[in-house]
Amino acid sequence: NPLKKLSKSPKLHFLDPGIQRTILQKTGELNGNEFESAIIAELYKQAKAIHFTGSFYHLHTLDGREVDLLIETENGYMAFEIKSTINVTSTDCRHLKNLAPILDKPLLQSFIISNDEQVKTFDNNILALPAAMFLT
To answer: Within 13 Å of residue 100, how many CA atoms lie on the same side as its CB?
Structure first.
């Protein structure tokens, strides 16, 4: 299906969001894009620290599906949606649902990382975790 065409592409994230905010003279809470960038930067740094050899991608399809982070390993993919919300709902899972059929390897696990303090599970093997819990 041409509309389901998959594009695994890089996306620019600052590895130190504090420097970015200083340059832009921003204060206060992180906005959604800054939160996403901070989480991905931390995952990337932790992966490098343990010499992880997988690849990091931003995924989007021609029909508008977008996944913030797709980590490719030898055995499959891990998909991540990153939301700054304090209350994750099933709506936040929409891009992760039915993702497996368009991938060229198995989908090992899907995550939503957020500011919600509760761990939640959703259909399609989607696990929502607080950012603080996930990154420690």
So the answer is: 10
pLDDT in tens, 91-101: 999 999 988 98
Residue 32's nearest CA partner among 96, 92, 70, 83 is 83
Residue 116 has which token pair? 């919600």
Instruction: State the Cα torsion 37-42-45-46 to the nearest 10°.
Output: -150
| Burial (Cβ within 10 Å: 0-12, 13-18, ≥19) of residue 125 | middle
pTM of the model: 0.84
User: Which residue matches tokens 């800054």?
Assistant: 34
**Token reading at 63:** 């029909």
CA distances from 20 to 84, 114, 125 (A): 18, 21, 34
